[in-house]
Design goal:
single chain, alpha+beta, 6-stranded antiparallel beta barrel, 6-stranded antiparallel sheet, 11 helices, 24 strands, disordered N terminus, disordered C terminus, membrane, hydrolase
């Protein structure tokens, strides 16, 4: 009998995991909003198991035998490899292998050669793992002569460097969601961060140099803080220290209005193919996919490297705003081309790289930080290096939990733990079966409601 019950428990656990995938992590995210211990931990554990495989395999197999990894449309990890033997190793590890003609070493050497060529403003390039190419783009400001010179450089590297003209111009996206204003212009707050004693706003570096004073109104009567560290060009991030030293209550929440918000539970480096969300005051909430990593953009103001490339649209006014998915902070808006009518390309400064350079930590929810009631400035807020649930099922990702969940909070047990209790196996199976049908059926309605709420009440995390 015990053996039978254990088998039933394992089956329930597997069903619960499948339910989480079908819902794009909604059950896990809502459990975290309810304050149930283990909610974020369960998310991080599932993500490590299913989505960290690609990066782990690339690290283990080396850049001479691989050429990057991405998340396929079906949510499965795909690793580009250069030979059949390496492909077999990838398949044994449970990932999908794609044999390609050029290793990561060759792709990076090509990017290095492009960086060594004379700089041409209005160009950008990135490593396209899925096509095993280096894609070079030139906007409408690049002259025919400059484009021809750069094309000759690309031809000398090899046929795996693809040249593309793109409409619009590559420019930093000024202004943004929840504006902060100075005499130099208008920008956006991104995420709240801390050094354990003082709190700061992480935003784009092109928003202003060190020493810039920021206000929450045009009259300059509501001081926000002062830029104390800035990197642009090269990178694109800056720190604005709060005037009173503290971010205040709700520093871990991205508010969307009507008492709702998205709790920031950690940070991560995104995966190619992952579904992501960006918020900004000009265009509201928009989503798309990560199309490339380690991108280089030659803005008129200077060259920025190491960026996240996406097909999420953005417009002037969206700069500095947050990039996130399932409550996980990923980046701050740097710049791009196009608009949200015709589409375009938008680049983001990775949060992980910025925080490492700045030696600060992301302010996350108390549950994610491992404490029940830690204040943002206590130093208990710690970054999470885990991948997001969106890397498991990129097409089903959500911005994060957008409403508090009642019931079950404070019980000390996660949803899966309660359903897999051997004393409640029967009810657990019934609940899971019914929940899967009901929750999947309402997925579309909830996504549309959340999108409209973001467009009406877009916000960033500073108070």
């Amino acid at each position: 009998m015990r053996h039978v019950r254990r088998r039933i428990v394992r089956r329930v656990t597997r069903l619960a995991a499948v339910g989480g995938l079908l819902l794009g992590g909604a059950m896990v995210a809502q459990s975290a909003m309810a304050g149930e211990p283990g909610g974020p931990a369960a998310q991080r554990g599932a993500a490590r198991t299913l989505s960290a495989t690609g990066a782990d395999l690339v690290d283990r197999l080396g850049t001479a035998r691989t050429a990057g990894s991405w998340v396929g449309d079906d949510g499965r990890t795909v690793v580009a490899v250069t030979d059949a033997r390496t492909a077999a190793e990838v398949e044994r590890a449970g990932a999908e292998a794609k044999v390609v003609g050029h290793s990561m070493n060759e792709l990076e050497a090509a990017a290095s050669a492009l960086r060594s060529a004379p700089r041409v403003a209005g160009t950008a390039w990135a490593l396209d793992y899925r096509t095993n190419r280096v894609v070079v783009r030139g906007d409408s400001t690049v002259s025919a002569a400059d484009w021809a010179r750069l094309t000759r450089v690309a031809d000398g590297i090899g046929s795996f460097v693809r040249m593309e003209r793109t409409p619009g111009t590559f420019t930093p996206r000024l202004n943004g969601a929840q504006p902060i204003l100075s005499t130099g212009g208008r920008c956006s707050a991104g995420f709240n961060v801390t050094d354990g004693q003082r709190d700061f706003i992480l935003t784009a570096g092109h928003c202003g140099p060190a020493g810039a004073q920021w206000f929450a109104d045009n009259q300059g009567s509501r001081p926000v803080g002062r830029t104390v560290n800035s990197a642009f060009p090269g990178a694109d991030f800056s720190l604005v220290q709060y005037a009173n030293g503290a971010a205040g209550e709700g520093a871990d929440v991205v508010a969307i209005g009507n008492g709702n918000g998205v709790r920031i539970t950690g940070l991560a480096d995104p995966s190619v193919g992952q579904r992501v969300f960006r918020s900004g005051s000009t265009s509201g909430l928009h989503d798309g996919q990560v199309t490339a990593l380690d991108a280089t953009v030659n803005y008129p103001e200077g060259t920025v490297t190491g960026l996240i490339e996406t097909n999420v649209c953005a417009e002037p006014g969206d700069s500095g705003g947050p990039l996130f998915s399932d409550g996980i902070a990923l980046g701050v808006t740097s710049g791009g081309s196009g608009d949200c009518t015709t589409g375009g390309t938008t680049f983001f400064q990775p949060v992980t790289a910025a925080l490492t350079r700045l030696n600060v930590k992301l302010i996350v929810s108390a549950q994610a930080a491992g404490g029940a009631s830690a204040s943002p400035s206590s130093g208990a807020a710690v970054p999470s290096a885990s991948p997001t649930q969106a890397a498991i099922a990129p097409g089903a990702a959500s911005p994060g939990s957008t409403a508090p969940v009642t019931g079950g909070a404070g019980t000390g047990r996660t949803l899966v733990a309660r359903l897999t209790d051997p004393g409640a196996v029967g009810p657990g199976l019934l609940v899971i079966a019914g929940s899967l049908v009901a929750l999947v059926a309402t997925r579309y309605l909830r996504a549309e409601r959340d999108r409209k709420a973001y467009q009406r009440y877009y916000s960033t995390t500073w108070s």
